[in-house]
Amino acid sequence: MEDYIMIVLRTILMYLVILVIFRLMGKREIGEISILDLVVFIMLAEIAVVAIEDHSANLGFSIVPMFVLLIIQVGMAIVSIKSQKFREMVDGKPTLIINHGKIDEKAMMKQRYNFNDLLVQLREKGIIHLSDVEFAILEPSGKLSVIEKDKGEKNIAMPLILDGQLQKQNLADLGRDTDWLMGELKMRGFSEIDSISFCSMENGKLYIDAQD
Predict the structure, then answer these.
(1) Is the same domain home to 84 and 98?
(2) Residues 80 and 12 placed together within one structural domain of the fold
(3) Do residues 147 and 200 share a domain?
(4) Can you state the angle between helices 84-91 and 35-53, rounded to 10 degrees?
(5) pLDDT in tens, 23-57
(6) Whole-model pTM above 0.90?
(7) In sequence order, what are the residues at sequence separation of 6 or more whose Cβ sits closer than 8 angstroms to the Cβ of residue 79?
């Protein structure tokens, strides 16, 4: 009987500890978790199972590594916010699969993403015909973002500056160069790219958000 009581108590304690850790890790949709989040979740689950099953083990030997994982995860998240390169290395970056109605097979191959995947995700969004799609972006989470042709969008709002860093590929995709962008920024009172946190072309106009 004592063994069952111990299992119940350990289970409740592990549940509360994991609940606290998840709250401290911050809010993130289940479909939006990164590879780093997934690794932490799996390790937490394994540690919790061992702590519940091994009655003789000191609970401190399980709780301490759990909070070490929390510190690692929060630390990596902070670095990810500060560094775009690190963020792309851990989470990846969005990939334009369909651009102005044309499928980019090379981009699909690079992401190991096939036509079955594309058609399934389009059907999930109620889109039957590929010809109805103007833009489709494969997000780092694996989610497909779609803009239909009848929405009247001319160009997709891809970031030109992100966290003070120039997004050269996105700029090239718009048929523009750095000189053009710098000229537009100077007209709006911005002389340095690193003073801008976010800039994109939206409906033919630049949207700019300066660093706080």
Answers:
(1) no
(2) yes
(3) no
(4) 60
(5) 887 766 455 666 777 888 899 989 988 888 887 77
(6) no
(7) 86
